[in-house]
Amino acid sequence: MSKFFNHRILQRAILGAMVSASIAASAVAAQNPPPINQEEHINDSLIAAAVGALILENCASIKPRYFVIAGKVKALESYALDQGYTEDQVDAFLDDKEEKKRVRREANAYLRALGVVKDDPDTYCAAGKTEIANQTLTGEMIWSWK
User: What is the rounded CA–CA span in Å between residue 79 and residue 59?
Assistant: First the structure.
């Protein structure tokens, strides 16, 4: 009986140590997140916003959903802070001219893959309607009156 008891104590101690290590690793990861320009959710969200901006700039029949956009911006800010980024890091990333160019390049590539042709508003409108119909993040931030 004592061997069983000692074995159970050892199992619990090992399990407890594993759980503690997992929690500690999670806390360290939250305190030391990857570079913000490599965080997938943040980047995907910014690219989706840039796609929406390009559609809005080039298609007169598609309009922004201001309240939805404001809510998504607030949620993304909260997400970034929850991941361990500071407000200064977020602000620096959003103000970085090279990062803005990178996000815009990725948004343009995404739109080209949807069949958008530069200087052809109809293709931007079609892409916007596709985004709306597919209920993508971009599609949630825009609406079409045609």
Answer: 31
51 contacts 111 by C-beta, under 8 angstroms? yes
Q: What is the pLDDT of residue 16?
A: 46
Residue 112 vs residues 84, 92, 115, 120: alpha-carbon distances, Å:
34, 29, 5, 12
pTM over cut 0.90: no
**What does the pLDDT look like over 54-113, one tens digit per residue?**
999 999 999 999 999 999 999 999 999 999 999 999 999 999 999 999 999 999 999 999
SS3 label, residue 144: strand
Q: Please tell me the distance from the alpha carbon of residue 25 to that of residue 11, in angstroms, as a whole number.
A: 21
Question: Tens of pLDDT along 119-145?
Answer: 999 999 999 999 999 999 999 999 998
**Closest by Cα among 106, 104, 132, 128 to 115:** 128
Could you tell me if 107 and 50 are in contact, meaning their C-beta atoms sit under 8 angstroms apart?
yes
What are the CB-based long-range contacts (under 8 Å, 24+) for 100-105?
Answer: 102/37, 103/43, 103/46, 103/47, 103/50, 104/50, 104/54
